[in-house]
Specification:
The chain is mostly helical. The chain is built from four helices and no strands.
Length: 179
């Protein structure tokens, strides 16, 4: 039969010569890689910028993209995505240079909402362009007079950009929910 053991408890430390209780230490969660203000977060933002700019320039170099609404929507969506990601990449560079953490709840909320909106717009635009590209190339067999290869590559770059923004959105949303 075992008996409970009693262990002595140390008294709280003295503060300014009085026996006051020390304020509890705040435990702060480490910055998760991919969050704003980290090197991985900056790499994700730069990937987003690169792939959206490629998609935008490939689509803009075709002469007949304004004739299809989905292609115009893709240009608008990746244009917005590239501006959003570029501005956040600049903020990440600043935070890394001055070694400042970007764990402000309001800032993370803005990041999460902006990433959610721009990722939804980019994904919807890429899906609509993929549907139109399949219609032109497979169903209508009109690739000889259209720029199907350029449309396909611009759509692929938009999807890759969406793959790069998804971790940013989920990490920001997770951090926001964990607070």
């Amino acid at each position: 039969m075992s008996r409970p053991a009693v262990h002595p408890v140390e008294p709280p430390p003295f503060i300014d010569g009085r026996n006051d209780v020390a304020p509890p230490r705040r435990v702060r969660m480490k910055d998760v890689e991919g969050m704003p203000g980290t090197f991985t977060g900056l790499a994700l933002r730069l990937c987003q910028v690169i792939f959206t700019v490629i998609s935008l320039t490939v689509m803009a170099t075709t002469s007949d993209f304004p004739s299809v609404t989905a292609f115009r929507y893709l240009v608008a969506a990746v244009g917005l995505q590239s501006l959003w990601s570029l501005s956040l990449a600049m903020i990440d560079v600043y935070a890394l240079c001055v070694k400042r953490s970007l764990r402000n709840p309001v800032l993370i909320f803005m990041y999460a909402i902006g990433d959610g909106i721009t990722s939804t717009l980019t994904f919807a635009a890429a899906c609509s362009c993929a549907g139109i590209t399949v219609l032109i190339s497979n169903d209508l067999n009109r690739c000889d007079i259209n720029h199907c290869k350029k449309f396909m590559s611009a759509t692929a770059m938009a999807f890759i950009s969406w793959f790069a923004i998804s971790p940013s959105f989920f990490l920001n949303f997770w951090s926001l929910a964990a607070q």
